[in-house]
Amino acid sequence: MNPTLDQLQEARMALDSPLFSGLPGDIEVSFEFFPPKSAKMEAQLWDAVQELKPLSPSFVSVTYGAGGSTRERTHATVARIIAEAQLPAAAHLTCVAASKDEIREVAEHYWEAGVRHIVALRGDAGKPGAPFTPHPQGYTNAAELVAGLKEIADFEISVAAYPETHPEAACEQDDLDHLKRKLDAGASRAISQFFFSPETFFRFRDKLAASGIEQKVLPGILPVSNVARARSIAEACGTAIPDWMDGLFEGLDDRPAARQLVAATVAAELCRRLYAGGERDFHFYTLNRAELSYAICHMLGKRPRGEGEQV
């Protein structure tokens, strides 16, 4: 992709001026949460929702476990966010261990609760390395799930994209072709798996264009404060963690405040470089904590629509 004049000027400003000075806040943001497993975790999640709501996210999403393991908690969390926080909330839905009739029932319950946006995923088997086995009466992949959901109701649908190729894909082009099938089936956007190099996303963006994919793909951002945890997540989805990241966090195990500062700096610089490359829409994997995502949005010029706004 050839840079535009505006992007070249933006890149020059990023080099010549303080990185985060004078940004107009012309970005859209969205946030991902996971359903809480205890009252304490629910309080933490709700604190995060309250803190991030004033940034006026375009949507927030709530993840979903296989086989009903978090189905009820996901539904309750999404319904509460819509009813009490009055934020547009997307519910994750997977193909794992569910028949088409079961998925229809879940989707209809979501629609009744006011959910109009679904993040449609094939889902994983649950055990590392275990192959995905479709339910005998279920959907075999996310493209089929998208098509099925569009028949149930007029959902807005997001799907997953993999800048570093899904681990199970036969090859890079096969993965891109599968993404195109999901979008052609009715999805309106894709959300990328997290990555740690802006060049990774820019190369991916070029490949999307070459494959005829025109729908928006949001860069997924994971602010990392615990490298070990991030590594375990990354290994499951084929994301490379650069060696320098271990060095940055070395010696900070017992210094949580310093870890937070380092994490915010690393993720904010990634977003700033994506911004210089023309990206204006960011999706944050919050891990149910607001501090890092809020700080990064602030550095990018995003400000609350109303200071002191309460949920």
Report on this model:
With 311 residues, this protein is an alpha/beta fold. The chain has a single domain (5-16, 25-299), classed as TIM Barrel, CATH 3.20.20. The chain has eleven helices and eight strands. An eight-stranded parallel barrel has the order 1-2-3-4-5-6-7-8, surrounded by four helices. Strand 5 (156-161), helix 6 and strand 6 form a beta-alpha-beta unit. The longest helix is centred in the C-terminal third of the chain and has 21 residues, at 256-276. The chain is globular.
CATH topology: TIM Barrel
Which value, in Å, is the CA radius of gyration? 19 Å
Count of domains: 1
Lateral strand order in the biggest sheet: 1-2-3-4-5-6-7-8
| Strand residue percentage | 5-15%
Helicity level, as a percent range? 40-55%
Gross morphology: globular
Mean pLDDT across the residues is 89
Largest sheet, described in full? 8 strands, parallel, barrel
C-alpha termini separation: 42 Å
| Count of alpha/pi helices | 11
Give the tags:
311 residues, alpha/beta, TIM Barrel, eight-stranded parallel beta barrel
Write a compact overview of the structure shown.
By secondary structure, the protein is of the alpha/beta class.
